[in-house]
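Here we describe the complex-level prediction in full. Unlike the single-chain runs in Section 2.1, the two entities below were treated as one system.
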Amino acid sequence: MAQQLAMVIDATKCIDCKGCVAACKVANNVPEGQWRNWIKQDEGTPTPGVLPTAKTRFQPGACMHCENPTCVDACPTGATYKDKETGAVIINDALCIGCGNCIPACPYNARFRNAVKRKADKCNYCPERRAHGLLPACVDTCPTKARVFGDINDPESEAGRLFRKNKAKLVQVAAKTDTKPNMYYIGDPGLQDWAGEAVIPASMIAMKESAPFIKGIVGLSGLGVLAMLSRQLFVSSDENKENDDA
Amino acid sequence: MPNQMYKRHDRSDIFIHWFNAACWILLLLTGVGLIQHSAIDPFGSGYPEALRAMVGGGGNLLTIHEGIGLLWILGFVFYLIVNFKGAKFFLSEVFPVSPERDVPWLFKKMALMTIGPKVLKDPTLPDQGYYNMGQKVFAQASVVGGIVIAVTGIIMWLSDRSLGAEAVGIVSWSIFLHFIGVGLVFAGLLVHIYMAAISPEERPGFMSMFTGVVPGDYAKHHHRLWWEKIKTENK
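The structure predicted for the assembly as a whole is:
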């Protein structure tokens, strides 16, 4: 079975320290004012001096490397793709021109246009760190080990073990578009319905819809050429001569 | 009377024609490889995969496509500097359409070349000028399409170089227009290549794209209005 890199997160362990957010920014050189990951909470920001009425629940998140990635469908060039080997959703920086199609196509708002690189950006599970045998920066830095990363198809990995053990009670964020996210929460992650709808830009829809017409017009033109060619080759030259002299 | 030769194309015209032809073929082949989406892929997903593997990745293919595209635009700038008069003449011959002469010519010619003269009551074609209506249609499509393709190409090229996040809508619509423009021009290009290079009728016209001149009998038969004009001028 191919890999499926994923995060299995015990939301109850999260203390909202934002260590993962800071570590990610540093590791990936994310520009000021932009973030690849987040911690959401369901009780608003606590006000100093006011006792919270209920227990605040924290929900660490980022790109969910979905099974059904709508962002990939919004990309005309394949610069964003789901890697067959690891199951991660990857951005090929060299091929991406920053057209922005994929950004509204993510119902979790996990994507942004990097203000410095001017290309799509999001969590990529820190491939540079993994190449050196390290965990993604957010996972590595998490003091309570709320974030667990690994191949959920590998029962030997910690993520796989947690995934299997908790299969019945795993929670995913429910978006209006079901993208089958590979971000699983153990324990109550609080808000589960904050995600929106995948919006494919009208320009991309126009391109998809017009493709069959363009192919049809090119096909018709090709048929016309074939008709002319077969007349040239098979109709007696006498008739052609007549036509020529006309 | 010997078959006098008439000048039809300047050396710069011949250069830009073949320069454009070479660029378009390379741009088409590399550009189609840059599209990878199951709902769009003109030749299926195997083509972009194979082409990208050949040049060492999609990023390299994009760089090659952008490089040829910029060279193509520079080639046209160079042509306009060298022969602006020629370009102006070309546009003035290509865009005006005579409804009583050109429109029937186009439909009759299409019927004649695909089905045959029997399908028409009167297979006589109205006289044509410097360009016939078929050439005009393709030239108009090439000029308009070429401008759209060049402008949208530059917008896409600038996207990750200098454009900000607020421009993504323009960039994304540019991708669409670039695709549509190339598709429509390519449909015309198939007919253009057949008429010029494969059909025996236009052989002297094809040769003139190398030599710059056409024989008088060809000019008289194919571009009578032009022939009548230059016949008197050349005497």
